[in-house]
């Protein structure tokens, strides 16, 4: 954060807001900002940020702006904080430079963070069933009335984004599993354990050994964790695989166009795709849709982050910015807290594995 006594307000960029303070609601802002060159600065809104300094706590307004802007501490905060200037002037300018450089890297790859749907380029998922396997068709299961509207909305969303498409006929059909979410929407997936999972050919590609992943991170002092949006569903199915993954609903038959959760080979298929995208970059590990980058210095780490984001952007994927963490000295990954001293188990370690393989 840069001190700017010429700035009337304190501000952060959209990237910093989503990455660090996204849990705080964005409100309308009365501010109209211009730079020292007279350029208008687009304002997205403002938040009420909790601040603790020298043992005192405050709730202070913080303006969120678009574009590649440094984080500024302006006069509206300075009058409340009554800064200890002797301490402030001992802060190295390099710290502000590092955060400025991080914002530049993220801004360079801002298309990755769009909220539309990603599609991995040049790769498709293939589902193979055993020789002689006979099609299995299930009727739709009865759906409680309270779930009909959220299920229909989710089907509309999935159809809009090309995740599924309507079909009039299919020799294969799985009933759906409905998982209500906290926001009153529903997640849908096929109950493939009663259809294609019974006769699917195993995927030969192995999931990575966790010990090998952590060995790759040895010596790292800085970490960035990247979470992909919609995970498997960024990978399109090849035409011959789609028929096996048809779902039967109270609104009719829908055929998946993208790799869904619930298919027994989906984790290995997606892992193979991600390893192909990220191959050749040192100090980077990936377990399914969770990517972790390290580095022994800030400069090395930002260079590696730039390489990874470049590869992801070129592949056509989308990243969920609100779940990413950049340039951290400690992160949680696969049930461990990782820092320069090594691995430290967390309470979530065991529960994580259930989530990885079920998608819930």
Describe this structure as you would to a colleague:
By secondary structure, this protein is of the alpha+beta class. The protein is 27% helix and 24% strand. The chain is built from 9 helices and 19 strands. The chain has helices at residues 14-20, 75-81, 85-88, 93-108, 145-160, 210-216, 266-278, 298-315, 349-358; strands at residues 2-3, 11-13, 33-34, 40-41, 43-53, 56-65, 72-73, 164-167, 174-180, 186-190, 223-227, 246-249, 252-256, 284-287, 290-293, 325-328, 330-333, 336-339, 342-345. A 5-stranded mixed sheet has the order 8-13-12-9-10, with helices on one face. A hairpin with a 2-residue loop joins strand 18 (336-339) and strand 19. Helix 4 (93-108) packs parallel to helix 8. The longest helix has 18 residues, at 298-315. The radius of gyration is 24 Å and the shape is globular. It starts with a strand and ends with a helix. The model is unreliable at 89-94, 349-354 and 356-360 (pLDDT under 50).
Topology pattern, helix = H, strand = E:
EEHEEEEEHHHHEEEHEEEHEEHEEEEH
Percent of residues in beta strands?
A: 15-25%
- Spatially, the strands of the biggest sheet line up as 8-13-12-9-10
The helix fraction, in percent, is 25-40%
Q: Which blocks of ≥5 consecutive residues have pLDDT under 50?
A: 89-94, 349-354, 356-360
Number of strands: 19
Gyration radius from CA atoms, angstroms = 24 Å
Main beta sheet, described? 5 strands, mixed
Distance between the terminal alpha carbons, to the nearest Å? 38 Å
The number of helical runs is 9
Q: What is the residue-mean pLDDT, rounded to a whole number? A: 84
Tell me the overall shape: globular
The computed structural class is alpha+beta
């Amino acid at each position: 954060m840069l001190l700017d006594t010429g700035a009337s307000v304190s501000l952060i960029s959209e990237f910093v807001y989503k990455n660090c303070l996204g849990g705080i609601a964005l409100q309308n802002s009365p501010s109209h900002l211009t730079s020292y060159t007279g350029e208008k600065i687009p304002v997205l809104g403002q938040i009420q940020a909790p601040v603790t300094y020298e043992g005192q706590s405050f709730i202070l307004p913080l303006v969120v702006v678009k574009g590649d802007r440094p984080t500024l501490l302006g006069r509206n905060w300075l009058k409340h904080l009554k800064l200890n200037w002797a301490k402030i002037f001992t802060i190295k300018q390099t710290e502000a430079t590092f955060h400025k450089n991080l914002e530049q890297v993220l801004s360079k790859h801002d298309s990755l963070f769009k909220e539309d749907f990603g599609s991995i380029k040049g790769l498709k998922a293939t589902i193979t069933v055993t020789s002689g396997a006979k099609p299995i068709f299930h009727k739709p299961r009865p759906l409680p009335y309270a779930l009909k509207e959220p299920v229909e909305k989710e089907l509309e969303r999935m159809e809009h984004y090309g995740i599924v498409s309507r079909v009039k006929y299919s020799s294969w059909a799985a009933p759906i599993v409905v998982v209500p979410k906290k926001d009153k929407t529903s997640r849908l997936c096929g109950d493939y354990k009663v259809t294609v999972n019974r006769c699917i050919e195993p995927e030969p590609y192995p999931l990575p050994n966790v010990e090998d992943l952590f060995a790759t991170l040895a010596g790292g002092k800085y970490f960035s964790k990247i979470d992909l949006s919609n995970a498997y569903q960024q990978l399109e199915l090849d035409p011959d695989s789609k028929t096996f993954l048809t779902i039967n609903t109270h609104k009719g038959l829908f055929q998946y166009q993208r790799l869904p959760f619930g298919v027994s080979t989906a984790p290995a298929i997606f892992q193979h795709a991600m390893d192909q995208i990220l191959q050749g970059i040192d100090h980077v590990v990936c377990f399914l849709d969770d990517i972790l980058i390290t580095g022994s210095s800030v400069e090395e780490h930002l260079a590696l982050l730039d390489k990874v984001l470049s590869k992801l952007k070129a592949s056509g994927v989308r990243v969920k910015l609100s779940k990413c963490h950049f340039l951290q000295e400690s992160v949680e990954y696969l049930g461990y807290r990782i820092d320069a001293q090594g691995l430290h188990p967390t309470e979530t370690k065991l529960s994580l594995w259930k989530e990885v393989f079920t998608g819930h």
